[in-house]
Specification:
Two copies of one chain form a homodimer.
Chain A lengths: L1 E5 L3 H13 L3 E5 L2 H11 L3 E5 L7 H9 L6 E5 L4 H10 L3 E4 L4 H13 L9 E4 L2 E4 L4 E4 L2 E2 L4 H12 L4 E3 H8 L8 H15 L9 E4 L3 E4 L5
Parallel strand pairs in A: 1-2, 1-3, 3-4, 4-5
Antiparallel strand pairs in A: 6-7, 7-8, 8-9, 10-12, 11-12
The structure holds a DNA duplex (30 and 30 nucleotides).
DNA sequence: TCGGGCCCTAACGAATCCCTAACGCCCCCG
DNA sequence: CGGGGGCGTTAGGGATTCGTTAGGGCCCGA
């Protein structure tokens, strides 16, 4: 997780860099407003810690500049403790406001709280093969644009194969993942449900191009149906 | 925008209610931890303002109880100003922490900042399917131009499905979002209320085109009723 | 006190899904 | 040339889940 520290006080920057780096964060720094905006454009941080009292651009201008194109969480650090200053910064688009001097562990906790709110990176990619598109997170399968109905078992089996695309998945692994660890010998289930998946997804179910059999071993999914 | 105020001090509650109501917020209140959790389940607020010093459950327990099933922004208000208290609350899942006494306009600005962070709900003002139009922000449903009356439970169920359009929503998720986290096995509720929604919204309730069932898994809303 | 809306409980066919069983095919090996 | 194991396919019974209806308790306003 990347954090941009925008502060013109070298002492604070150094202290924060050490503390944050030690906790596994990736730290970028900037010493004035213009540099902060450029650094944000270049590095796309996950959280911005912004000192309002920097030379050059005013802190509010930096916030507005960021908000023009980014929704990155902004934590403002300022020596001014008047409530009007806080209101101005928060309404400009800041997400949190801490007055100096501050406790380091409180700042860290607030950074963690802000970082939690950006799970945007968790949406799983969609997988496509032939005219079929599979959206794993939405549990949605379409073939030539129309939705395909899969039963729970069919879906679990397809999911295991897709998550291991281009890799051979042994029969035992498939049985364990789909039916549970006590069914590792009932290979009949696999034949049955693979056939149903092929019937629903393959362009030519009798000649599989994507859901391939490896006799005696298991099955393999490949997206380049050569 | 709905705000849940959880505080056992009637003075503070009264003052906040007046201030927030004057600014157009919908205010719900609770005087202890248990009541706060119940109110959150029932009303699904957009922001929770939580006093840590309430009788009954500890503030941390309330935060954890909410976080078990909800991502609603939580603003903690507390008389304790030690950084350890702040760290504990923030790491438990709170999003902001303000110490008493606080300036009313600062609290309002922080509430606004938190409210901004849930744009996933507001980026889709109206959803249309068939001859039905749903305005999520106005809580209004029309079918062929005439208003449809939905009960509160029906509305919450429809809302969850619409906010996840084209995505499969598991039975467990639906039950948690609509009835609360302790009803995750009562699938009878879903069958009942889905039927009522279909009766009120589907052109042919016995052959659903938009509110689809995926047996054994959950339900899915799709707007392209092919 | 009454009536209506809302929510929950209970129960019943109907639809769906999973598993069992059997048969034909291909390939390998004897 | 004949047998056998692994695979693909089909059909049908049993269990789970779903859709639907009816009825009772609760709260609230008339």
């Amino acid at each position: 997780m990347k954090i941009l520290i925008a502060d013109d006080d070298p002492q604070i920057v150094r202290a924060l860099r050490i503390t944050l780096t030690a906790r596994g964060y990736d730290v970028i720094t900037a010493a004035d407003g213009r540099a902060a905006l450029n650094a944000a454009i270049e590095h796309h941080p996950d959280v911005v810690v912004l000192d309002l009292g920097m030379p050059g651009l005013s802190g509010i201008e930096v916030i507005e500049g960021l908000r023009g194109w980014s929704t990155v969480p902004i934590l403002v650090v300022s020596g001014r403790s008047e409530s009007w200053d806080k209101v101005e910064a928060l309404d400009a688009g800041a997400d949190d406001y801490v007055t100096k001097p501050f406790a380091a562990d409180e700042l860290l906790a607030r950074i963690r709280a802000l970082g939690r709110r950006t799970p945007a990176a968790t949406d799983e990619p969609t997988i496509a093969f032939g005219d079929v598109v599979v959206d794993l997170s939405a549990r949605l399968v379409t073939k030539a644009g129309v939705a395909v109905r899969l039963t729970p078992t069919e879906w679990r089996l397809l999911e295991v194969l897709l998550r291991n695309h281009d890799r051979l998945v042994s029969r035992e692994t498939l049985l364990t993942e789909v039916w549970g660890p006590q069914y590792t010998t009932d290979t009949g289930y696999l034949r049955l449900y693979l056939a149903q998946l092929r019937k629903k997804l393959e362009p030519e179910p009798s000649k599989p191009r994507y859901l391939l059999t490896e006799a005696g071993m298991g099955y393999r999914f490949t997206s380049d149906g050569a």
